[in-house]
Structures are given as structure tokens and as C-alpha cells.
Amino acid sequence: MSSSARLPVRQQTQEIIRSRERQASLMKELVSPKQVARAIGASESSVKRWCDQGVISTVRTAGGHRRIPVNAVLSFAKSHGHKLVQPEVLGLPPSTTGAGERSLERARKRLLAALVSGEDVLSRQLVLDLYIAKHRVSRICDEVLAPVFHEIGDLWECGDAEVYQERRACEICLRVLHELERLMPPVPADGPVAIGGALDLDPYSLPTTMAELTMRQCGWKGVSLGSLLPAASIANAIADIGPRLVWISVSHADDADRIVEAMNQVYEAARKHKAALAVGGAALTEEIRRRVRYSAFCDTMAHLETFADSLTSN
């Protein structure tokens, strides 16, 4: 396929990146100093002073009024030890204070029950509380979300959970992760680009979404391309976007030969365009690993974060 034939794809993908950058730097929700004061239990005059001092990232309306992105409020609250006393003012669940469930193990147990029961609001509260309590996204993914879905899978296989409960839990979790992304600080304008996804025959989008957020927290412009992706399409994305890092998540691998062929095709595309390839996933068995080429094997999000950091520290 010629480069001109792929031009619309390139334009669309670049627009996705630009859109996510705009969304991160200026969330749809901009709040006033009065609302921030109510949310964190401070005086409005103190909030205005922090804005004017540059302690809280602020924008001005056409009329000169201060407006504050919600992600800037959360960054300030996390770094200065303020609890959210009225989180609903920021559009968060009423019980999301940052002073709630801070133990990853206790949160895991409560989140398992909440997801199986389909409790959307409680699931949001548990995950967002952990983030506001300064747990890194990689730890939340590795020590809470991944174990929870492993347990849900076990319940399903044993007949103790219905298929709809597992699917519903995935949908709830995806919504929570997308909300969490909007609450994260903006990625630096000069941040390196990373893309990734899951190959065809692999319908699971949750792991690649976790990878995207992990990359964004460590300063990368991470973009998940989704699941069920043909290797040739990923290769085209690498050529179009020019990322420094590519990740592939393998959560389903019934056809090992096809997976090996696809992953090696992606590796060759990454190598051609001087990008590193990180692979991981619950279905990436030792037998498959021996037959594929990659730059790094990351069996946790923390490993992916460490590998990404190693690329930018050189």
C-alpha cells in the first residue's frame, strides 16, 4: 500500500493523539476557585492565591475569570496532602476522598465483590481512591485489577459467576480506567510516543488500556490501538505514527503458530522503524516466547514502566 493511500489513517491517528493531549491538558470539566474550595475544604481566597502563585494550574476565561481543570485539582490535592471533602463537586463519586481504601489488598477484595455485583459507583470510588492516595497506576493494575480479573475468571470457570457478570465487570473497569485517564496530569508536549494493542483473535482490551495509562503516567504519549488487530495493521500504524515503543498484549492465544507469526511481523516492523517492542500477557507462554522476537518481556505493568524509563534515560 502506498504512503498516499495511508494518509487518511495517518491523519486520523495523529488527530487521536492531539485530541487526547487536549483532553488531558484541558479536561471538559473546568471548575471555579469556589468549587475547588468546597471540594478540598479550603477558603476561596486561599485557592485564588494558589492559582495566582502557579501552585494550581489555572486557565482564564475570555472575561478573565480563573478556571481550573479537575486533573489540576487532584494533582494539587495529592501533592499537598489535601483530602477531598466534597468530591461530588468535581464530578467524582461522593465517597471518593483519597482517605478511604488505601490498602491495595483490601481494595482488591472489595473491588472483586463490587465488580461481580455490578456496583459501578463503588468500583469507581475504590479505584479512584487508590489513585488519589498516590498509588501509581502500574501498582493499581498489577496488584488490584489484574488479580481481580484472574479471580473473576476462576469464578466463571468454576460456575460461580455467569458470563454476563464477567463481561459487565470488564465494561465497568474500562469505564473507570477511561475516567482515571482524564484525571491524570497532561503528558509533556515533548513526551515520546508509544502505541500498542492486542492481536487478532485476542478480544481483550483491558490489558492494553492498562498499558496505555501506565505509559502516560511515566510521561509517554501512550495510545492503545485496541484489540483484534491484524499484525499488518499494527505494522502500518508503526510506519504512520513513528513511535519509540510498541507494546503487544497477549491474553488469548489458542493458535500459537499464528500468534508467533504475527508477533514476529510486528517485531520486524518495529525494528525497521527503530522502535522497541515490549510484549506481555497472561497467555504468552514460555513455548511462545521461545519462538518470538522482542525487545523486552514485561509480565507486569511495573516491568513495562521500568522498561519505558530505561529508554528515556539513555
From TrEMBL:
InterPro entries: Cbl-bd_cap (IPR003759), Cobalamin-bd_sf (IPR036724), DNA-bd_dom_put_sf (IPR009061), HTH_17 (IPR041657), Meth_synthase_dom (IPR036594). Residues 108-180 form the B12-binding N-terminal domain. Gene3D superfamilies: 1.10.1660.10, Cobalamin-binding domain (3.40.50.280), Methionine synthase domain (1.10.1240.10). It comes from the Bacteria. SUPFAM superfamilies: Cobalamin (vitamin B12)-binding domain, Putative DNA-binding domain. Residues 31-79 form the Helix-turn-helix domain. This is Uncharacterized protein. It comes from Maioricimonas rarisocia.
